[in-house]
Amino acid sequence: MLKQSGNKAGSSWRVLTSLLQINRKLWPQYVFLIICIILAAGIDVAGTEAFRRMISAATDSNMGALRESLLLAGGVIAGTVVLGSCASLLTEFVNYRSSVHLESLMVQKLLHMNIASHRNYHSGDLVKRVSDNARNGQIALNNNLMDGFRVFAVIVLNLVYLSAINILFTVSCLVVALLLPFALKYLSRKLNVIYGHKLDAESALNAFTQECIDGAEVVRTTSLGERTDSIFHSKYAEFMKWTKKGIWFESLTNQVNFFIRIGGMIFIIGYGGVLVKQEIIGVSSVVAFILVFWRMLNPISNAMVMWPRVQNSLSQLSRALEILEMEEERGIHNGNEMSRNSSEPTMVQFSNVSFAYSPGRVALDTISFTVKAGTVTAIVGPSGSGKSTILQLLLGFLQPASGEIRIGSALQAERDVLQWRSDISYISQEMYVFSGTFFENIALGKLDATLTEVMNAAQKVNMHDMIMSTPEGYGTLIGEGGLTLSGGECQRISIARALLKQASLFVMDEPTSALDGENEAAIFREFKNMIKDKTLIIVSHKPLRLEQVDQYLYLDHGQIVEQGTYEQLIARKGKYYNLLNGYEEEHDIA
Amino acid sequence: MKHKGASIFLRVFTYVKNGNNLLLFGLILLMVDVAFNIGIAKVQQSFLDVLNQGDFKRLSFYLIVFSICFLLAMLLTFVGYFFREYSFSMLTRNFQFDTFSMLNKLPYEELKGRHSGDLISRASYDVQDCCRHLKDGLFGIFENALQFAVALTYLCFINFPLAVAVAITGVLIFFCSSIFNPKIRKISSEIYNKESDIKNLIKEMAQGISVVKAYGLQSYFGEKYAKYRRDTYRLYRKSILTNVFMQQLLNIMRESVWIIGVFLICLSAINGEMTVGLVLTFTLLMSQVLWPFVIIADRWRTLNNSYGSAYRALDLAAFGQNSQSEKIEVTNPLLPPAEDIAVLLRNVSFKPDKSVEEPLFESFDLEIRRGEKVAIVGASGSGKSSLLKLITGLYRHDSGLITIFDKQVDGTSEVKDFYSYVPQHNYLFTGTISENISFGAISFDDDHIKRAAEAANADEFISRLEQGYHTPVKEGGATLSGGQKQRIAIARAMLKNAPLLILDEATSSLDRRNAMKIQRLLESLPSEITCIFVTHSPASLSFVDRIVILEKGRIAASGSLEELTQRNLLYQELFDSAEV
Prior knowledge:
Chain A has helices at 8-22, 27-60, 63-112, 115-118, 123-163, 167-214, 216-222, 226-277, 283-324, 387-394, 417-421, 438-443, 451-460, 464-469, 487-501, 520-531, 566-572, 575-589; strands at 348-358, 361-371, 376-380, 402-407, 410-411, 424-427, 436-437, 477-478, 505-509, 535-540, 551-556, 559-564. Chain A is of the alpha/beta class. In chain A, helix 3 packs antiparallel against helix 5 (123-163) and helix 8 (226-277) runs antiparallel to helix 9 (283-324). By secondary structure, chain B is of the alpha/beta class. Chain B is 64% helix and 11% strand. In chain B, helix 16 links the parallel strand 9 (500-504) and strand 10. Chains A and B meet through helix 2, helix 3, helix 5, helix 6 and helix 7 of A and helix 2, helix 3, helix 4, helix 5 and helix 6 of B.
């Protein structure tokens, strides 16, 4: 999935056209910018003409003509400055707008894409594609494309100017100039592939750096960095390999450019010499040709360096567009105000739900169960039994291959996914805390929450006192770069957030994994009190034995193998009983 | 400021190491480029003279000689370019190796207190950025300065006063652009900060996506992003206006001087002081005297813009070194080595958050004998995990003495060989399962790995996987369950086979079946292995020699299971603390 597929040179046009489509709104600015650029090139030719007139005035010793041409030159400077300012301002404006537009589209995509597709990418890679590849790629592409127009205009206008002197000579100069794209075709294709590999190697490097930061505890206690260094070095060797190849071909591209530049000049003098000998043109015309050809050399050589760069930016952008093409979750995206559901407890029903991560890897096999309104259901089972899959299906992160899921009377397949989720308060296993204040983190559960509401929620999870003891109370920053919280504290924040949401259904993923030194029964009793008589589904790998649980589902290999109340399961003396018994025995020893 | 910038680049420059010769050759070959650029002006003049004289035989002879020179120059510039670029990619590599290894040597507390996005951009983007700018700046300035010098000298021979006037204007252009530099630098550093905030926001969105979705926070985060972007728009506008103003000012100066120069030469040609051929040469050389200054000014700006990234990258490297040398105050003299003590904490003080007055541990003492199995229990916030992190050296104590087998814990290497640590939050690296188990081990083979996995009860599930030990692990072990990750982490510790085993809630994310197996593994540890673990599961206390109950950073009670049960302390601690 991370590998780039297919021939990128061939997809360049496709990338380009989809980007044009994305930047529809900026078309007038782009057009105006192009006009500025073409006019500036025209002024440039006028500058050459002014220069030619000065020289001819000098050869003719015509003082009046020299003064006139000085006036023309002054006009050229004024025009250059005015048009140049317009072009620069527009360029920068368009660069910022288009790149930020693409980035914000990608941010939206990131927020709305299917979690299933999200998981196919390393999160570091995703971030790089969104914030680095998209923006820098778009800016580079704009610059290169506008340079392209500039180059095109300069070449065309100068050729028109030269044609006025001698058409045949001009055409043969053009033929020399046209050697460039031919030489370039092969080199750019090569470079394109190399740049793609280089980018992949670079993101592998960054992903590894990110891992070393995330796994800092492991790195610091297992090795002294020799091992991480050596892995990094071997990953870097791959990057270096492509860098070296890239330099080689860049250098070759430069040389081709150099060859055409000077070779062209030799050609003009040689061919011009022949023409002078045949007295078709005068020596002064050769001078003019050399001058204009020199004026054109820079744009042409720019085009040489620019085309590989366009390819490079397109290969960056195709990494970004790959994300934009990801499937989105069904439902509304612009966050339109939706009717809130009542927070009355509701029932949850799975009927004949199946799911497979990939063909042959069945995670859930025709599961059916009902959670009655206001009751507590615990889904237990060993790791990999399909517990989390049930949760992901319930949250709409995954879509069932077959079967139906209902909350109350609402059928999941028929409802907007955002609206569907508004019925659920989810307490994740990871207890993700975002950078921001305590207040902001809790208020994520209800965005228009007042401080009092947030404080109430914090009080319910016993975090209020802790929060008030920090220097800035609810305004204290937490998350990355802020105050570090313990696992238990993060979970409490996450429960407070869920409480604030006031949904009809609570879903809790591995509630006890982050808690230490605290009895899960006590925590749970407390939690049950907080949510009152709401419907609750708990997923746990432990054989929770809690008085409040009305129904247990024991899952194994994607199937519900046992189902019932605690008493029923005990009476059955099945898997749950065995699991619990093993636990009880040890408990007694303790 | 300029001096500081120069010294910073000098430090970056030392990373070129073995690429030194390549770089030197590359620089020497840059002279070929310059010579060719200047020579072209002279060559054209001679061609025109020959043309004017109508000597076509000499013209073809000149053309052949020039073509040969040209091919030679092409070869040399090709090699030169390759040398220059390659030596700089070597410099980048060496620099990046260094920042990467410094990143891993950064003290744990320091690392946790920083944005990981910031660290990554320092360790990779900043390094590459500053190296690229340094390369462009260095070569650009060198080539253009050389070109300027040669062209100016030549120009002086043709018309001295005019040459001096052109040179002065070049210098003026240069100074004019350097006036704007500080202003531009200030805005770009503001932009950089804002951009890194945005990057961090995007990173959190990507990582916390399940919470974002479950709470329907898409539009909340979408708007937060949009607000940040509105802020950057203002900054960019300011930056764009300043930049364009400066560029156009330079343009006016350059163009006016060029046109006035041409006018003056033409005037002298009319007065009969020059030929038309010389006018052409002079104008070509004049642009070569004016242009280098503009380019140098531009490259100078590039260098200045990259100063920030060079500084950030070097700061990371420097920080690692500084904190390594920071000494821990030892209040007690070293005790005579005690044979049977595995872990010793004497008079240890530790403040987890330096801004908070109250230390977590104060004059904390703890001794653990060799072979002793010790369980640490206590409510959350009592300091259990912190205690383990102090012993492992992840946290650095403020004062006092901590030793493991008589070796002082002070962030040096040798202590780490004596313990295996299984953290509470396990982290797996991208790679195979086998690579993850062997991460950190010095010598091992496949058999060792398998045995370690068996000991950690991981072999069972690993063998069932299609690719067995070579199954790839995705980011953070996303494809594995919590229990599987935990078992791999324990296998990692088993493979290291250190005399001291430290586990932080080793069984918290395991299901009962697996937890019991790990439990048995701990029970059956050889008697010479010392083991310390934090737990909240009463079941795992059955076999330990000693239980230490922590309460707000001090030992509330300590003793065997029987003693504590008799004193009725243990259950109170384990169960009642949670009854809020």
